[in-house]
Amino acid sequence: MNDSIILRRLGLVDYRTSYQAMSAFTTQRNRETGDEIWCLQHPPVYTLGLAGRTEHVLDAGQIPVLKTDRGGQVSYHGPGQLIVYLLLNLRDRKIGVRDFVHLLEQSLIDYLLTLGLSAARKVGAPGVYIDGRKIAALGIRVRRGCCYHGLALNVNMDLSPFGGINPCGYAGLEVVQLADFGLTLTVDEAADGLLNYLLKNIIGDLYNVVIKQDLTDLMTGEAIA
Q: Mean pLDDT across the stretch 33-56?
């Protein structure tokens, strides 16, 4: 297994672009392909998971609603929300899907604790919550032992579009963000802090990080080898 981790810091990326890129990457990768982690933000968009039901979209307004192949129901993404997509070979890392979800949640809980926030899981509702209010959502897909999609952490964003849906399929679920607790972090700063725990909890100690700023090499096929 390739022990290099490519970390892509992509900025604001259209949802379709990143979705198509990570799906193609997962389809084309082989045993020698290194794992990747992408940190980015999306323009406003609602996404429906594989089991997503359109009745959970209450009023989309001018925001596009896109179907995707991750797990879960409907979610909202917008500027000011940290998206972390993890494209990992879970089979070679010997990590089961349930354990992977647990590690994602634990990484978020560990990071939030460093900010003075006590967060927790909720049985039967993947994600991370503070006093029952959702601050981070999860949604993954595993294909041939490799995962893609990932997590979304609300940092400092306009939360009003969550009112247009039943977040994650739960009517009346309250959504919060770091800014609600007086934290003025940027999305990049939140990424730096969270990545420390994602790498520690999921990747372990043996890895070499290669930082890239775009998807150019994926478009040319250089990263799939």
A: 94
Q: At 99, list the tokens.
A: 């354990």
Q: Kindly list the catalytic residues.
A: 168
Q: Is residue 225 part of a domain?
A: no
Asked whether residue 87 is domain-assigned, the answer is yes
The rounded distance, in Å, linking the Cα atoms of 24 and 58 is 32
Number of domains in the chain: 1
Does any domain span residue 197? Answer: yes
Let me know if residue 57 belongs to a domain.
Answer: yes
Question: What's the angle, vertex CA 31, arms to CA 26 and CA 32, rounded to 5?
Answer: 100
- For the purposes of burial, counting CB atoms within 10 Å of the CB of 115, is it exposed (0-12), middle (13-18) or buried (19 or more)? middle
Range of the domain at 160: 4-220
- Count other C-beta atoms under 10 Å from residue 146's C-beta: 20
Q: pLDDT tens-digit profile of 94-126?
A: 999 999 999 999 999 999 999 999 999 998 889
**Residue 138 host element (H or E):** strand 133-143
